[in-house]
């Protein structure tokens, strides 16, 4: 019987801050008056000595810095924002980008009330309220005319006068913020600022090194998704459903076709996630079929393989929590693979049942002929 080939589909497969000051504002040098932030006003007629057009996510940052008590009144402004989105602005003394920022988050709840709170983002981001490494007061947010604004007063020290800052936006679902997109604007929405001098920089003006890091991180994630999430399940399906065709060979191989296809998928998957290939040796060094320990290796091999596939799928969905595009894409791939596996499973059982009936018929014919005549029909179903 002809065997249907299975084609492996490879799909290429990184936040989140107005006590009245006893001293008068000490205006900082402002950026060029041509910036759009200078033309925007606030409903309460609040005035800020310094403002800057942030180059990513169409955002603006305003502040007054008071050197006498080391505080700063800030306003983070995000036009073109819907009520189903959250916005955030953060200081990150520990480094650039999204690792470890001290963030201020705002969004509109289901009752139409604005929610604003502080959250330290370290380890696995939870976006839950918490205390920051510096003081925050007068924290509030407003939404009007498609524009969301976060207001706050920051208690600073020498380490925060000139530091890194990041800003972000993402969807709100189930009453809480979810994962933001991984577009270029989202990945590059960070920079440095000096509250005293009014100097603000961004990746576009500091070079492309961060671009390269983001690219490498994305490539790493894509390769892992292809290896663990696609090739491993395909390899398991091939081994499970094509094993009945033990006599079929590829390229004059001494092994059955299912074995070569299965091993090729698993080895490629391991090389994608572990380029040194050290883990591949575990696949190659196995006992001979008649070895007394072969049964234990088989149990280990099957258990580990299925565990890796299940864990990679669940962990992948956990990492992509709230990130709809990738979640839907990968879910579609898994559903497609599951459908193929089910069809092949049915096809395999039909082959097995037909083969058993065929063998039973041959046995009866041989018995009826006294064992002297052998049916010449091929058993390679």
Write the layout of secondary structure elements.
Blueprint: E1 50-54, E2 59-66, E3 71-78, E4 85-91, E5 102-108, E6 114-120, E7 135-144, E8 147-155, H1 158-161, E9 162-173, E10 176-177, H2 184-187, E11 190-194, E12 200-201, H3 203-206, H4 209-241, H5 257-273, H6 281-284, H7 294-319, H8 324-368
Antiparallel strand pairs: 1-2, 2-3, 3-8, 4-5, 4-9, 5-6, 7-8, 9-10, 9-11, 11-12
Q: Helices and strands, in N-to-C order?
A: EEEEEEEEHEEHEEHHHHHH
Radius of gyration: 31 Å
Largest beta-sheet details: 7 strands, antiparallel
Principal-axes geometry comes out as elongated
Uncertain spans: 1-31, 205-210, 372-381
Summarize the amount of helix as a percent range: 25-40%
Derived structural class: alpha+beta
Distance between the termini: 5 Å
Pfam families: DUF568
Subcellular location: Membrane
InterPro entries: AIR12_DOMON, Cyt_b561/ferric_Rdtase_TM, DOMON_domain, UCP037471
Cofactor: heme b
Question: What does this 3D model show about the protein?
Answer:
This protein has helices at 158-161, 184-187, 203-206, 209-241, 257-273, 281-284, 294-319, 324-368; strands spanning 50-54, 59-66, 71-78, 85-91, 102-108, 114-120, 135-144, 147-155, 162-173, 176-177, 190-194, 200-201. It is α+β, with helices and mostly antiparallel strands. The strands form two sheets. Strands 4, 5, 6, 9, 10, 11 and 12 form a seven-stranded antiparallel sheet that branches. A five-stranded antiparallel sheet has the order 1-2-3-8-7, with no helix packed on it. The longest helix has 45 residues, at 324-368. The chain is elongated, with a radius of gyration of 31 Å. The model is unreliable at 1-31, 205-210 and 372-381 (pLDDT under 50). The chain crosses the membrane at residues 221-242, 295-317, 329-352. It is found in: Membrane. This is Cytochrome b561 and DOMON domain-containing protein.
